[in-house]
Structure formats: structure tokens, C-alpha cells
Amino acid sequence: MYLDAAMIESKTLAWGGVVAVRGLSHPISVARKIMEEKPRLLASEGAERFARDHGFQMCKPTDLIDYEQRQHFEKQEAVIDRPATVGCVALDANGILVAGTSTGGVANQPPGRVGDSALVGCGLYADGQLGACSTTGDGESIIPVVLAKTAVDLLSGDRHPDEAAQMASEIFKQKVTGEAGCILLDPQGRVGWAHNSQGMAVAYITSAMDKPAVFTRKESELYSQKDLLVSRSN
Prior knowledge:
By secondary structure, this protein is an alpha+beta fold. 30% of the residues lie in helices and 25% in strands. The chain has a single domain, classed as Glutamine Phosphoribosylpyrophosphate, subunit 1, domain 1 (4-Layer Sandwich).
């Protein structure tokens, strides 16, 4: 199991990332620490050495294989190639935007393979004037489209994050084949997301909400909003 992770903040564009690492329990925490130092991107044994030197929790690489994957492997069955990426975007009380992305890659990936998740502009991006984005999907297709940066740039002109995310998804489909999704947050705290896959699990909460909104497909959110409008009109 090879892991990639990265984080970026909008005020100074400080960022940090690790790629092709094994034996790190929380690679995103290591990426956060690297933000404070240079170089910004550490790979493989160098990243693992950095983590050990800074007291981060280490583990056996086999500990990162979940039960279901292990069962398929032991039965010599094909490993399920399901999404293994977790991304987040956040806005704090000082107006600073942050994006973070962490992944276990794809099933049966070759040793040392690096996807989009830890690459600034591809798997994540943040701009204090526009917004922050994290992506998921087929890294080999996301990278040439520079999907996270593309989505953030589309926030210009006070465009709503939902519209920008959908536009970025359309650009992705026009230029490459594959599946991808993105989550977006702007300096006003507005949320947006889109995907061209069958589903994408998303949860978000704002200061005006008393509990998170949770969805597995964009259509579910649209139906929920429609029902809310109907109930208010009644």
C-alpha cells in the first residue's frame, strides 16, 4: 500500500506533501508538518525518515490493508478498485482557506506510482481571493487537466462554487476520459461540488447549520434542496 497526501493554505500558499510512502499511519499530518519546512514534497523513504524524525506514528504497511481487500487477496480474487481518496476544504474565522487530500491510490498500482492527490493544482489548490478545491478520481486523467486549479480559477467573477465545479467537470469530460469529482469552497463560505462518476460521498457543514449535510450523489443534494423549497413554500 503506497500513500500520497498534501495540504495547502491560501494566505501564503504554503504547502507540503508526501508521495509513495509506506508505513505512515497519518500521511496528511506529515504533509501538514512539511508545510512549515522545505523541501515541500518528500517521497518514499525520505518522507518516512522525516516522519520518524518528527515523532509521527508509524505502522506496518500491511496494517493499511483493510479486511475486505485482504480477503479478496487471500482468495486470489480481483481486488475491488474503489475510491480510496479523502479530501477536504475549510475556511477559518480569519478568512484563510485550506485544502487537503490523502489517498491510498488505486488497486494493483505499480510500486512508486504517484497520482494527482499530492500534486498542487491537480489534487488540491487554494487561492485566498477565489477559493479552495480538493479532487478525487482517475489521477492520470486529472493531472493533465490540472483539475483543482481549473476549478478554482472558474470561481472568478463571484461565480458560485456549484456552478464552477460543474463547469470544471464539463471541461474534464471534454478533454480526457475517466472519472473525477471536486469539492469547492469560496471565501464567502459557499460550498459546491460535482462529479461525473456514479457516486461521490460528500459531507459539509457551515456556521449556519446545526448538523452536517451528507450525500453520496449530487442528484441527492438537488432533490433535498427542491424538497426544502417546497416545504418552505407551504
